[in-house]
Description:
30 strands, mainly beta
Amino acid sequence: MNTTRALALATVAILGPLSGHSSAHQPVRAPNPCDATIQVPAGFCAVLVAGSLRAPRHIVLAPNGDLFIASADGGVIALRDADGDGVAETRKEWGRENGTGIALAEGYLWFAADETVYRWKWASGQLEPAAAAEVVVQDLPNAGDHGAKPIVVKDGFLYVDIGSATNSCQERNRSPRSPGRRPCTELATRAGIWRFASTRIGQSQSDGIRFATGLRNPMALAFEPHAGVLWMATHGRDQLGDNWGYSDSLNAELPAEEFGPVVQGADYGWPYCYYDELKRRKVQAPEYGGDGTKVGDCGPKLVPAIGFPGHWGPIGLTFYSDSSFPVVYRGGAFIAFHGSWNRAPLPQAGYRVVYVPFRDGRPSGGYQTFLQGAGTNAIRPIGLAVGPDGALYVGSDAAGKIWKVSYTGR
């Protein structure tokens, strides 16, 4: 058996068979036309990179433009645009485990399944594994409401979102008038961001530290490049109306989806508190004696830099530091909102990518919608990444598609 064949079988043993197809390199062609179903600001063009993808989640690009996607339907999908027209002709797929987190850092490709974080040694131009995956962290908690594991790798550390197992730590999850557990024992292993050494393999959760707590499910994670600070956007709790009698309008708007920096050792308040964007403060949750106005013991909890409308579902985050987009977009944050389900009977909302301008490492204004589908919930954006060409790549798991958004000036 030759070495290449042996290495391929080793990868199969860890994550399942490799599959997919490839095409030969072709001469560079003219760019494909803009996708008219995607609404972007004047001067921008969204080109469909690939479709018929299996539940794409978070995405990352290599310096040569290769695109890697974590699949919630199992494993990793790799794409390559060989002829420069914006459309991927080459596709490789491997692995069985459902995943969300993916990163390309420190010489490795990282993939976070729901219970395990893997990595492969990665070389420039590589499109599929050459050897079996290493297990970096295993046996992460997965039961309950939030099993996905977004990740970030930077400066010798691996950061992992471990979302809560419940909506609000009630004695009976998502049940009307059920009180909250105090203390909420979930917080020991869930509802926060954990940090591990990125240089070690074979770790378990106890080998890491709880970097920040009281975050129900911070799915959107990225480092802001100016100050080098980790930022997050987290999902707020649900069912204030169904379970606690809040009005339809308050149930739709509260709690705010929080966007802000991650401070090591900080407590953001879940499940005891939630952020009320209308009052601009954290208030006591009804499971813990709150009445919609009472601050209780929530005063010391950290508040976000920006509160977005309730239930929009932030799920992807990237900062833009390239010079290809107009100057107004440079240095700011793009956030993907997956869309809501808990605003009924009011209309559901979200389903868009927004842009937040930054200055000196902090938001310098409000936010604006940057991308959405032709209909209210035509696409559900999820993964975001900036390519080496300065384009913004946007994925949608519901559509099974990836778009490349470039500035053309036309």
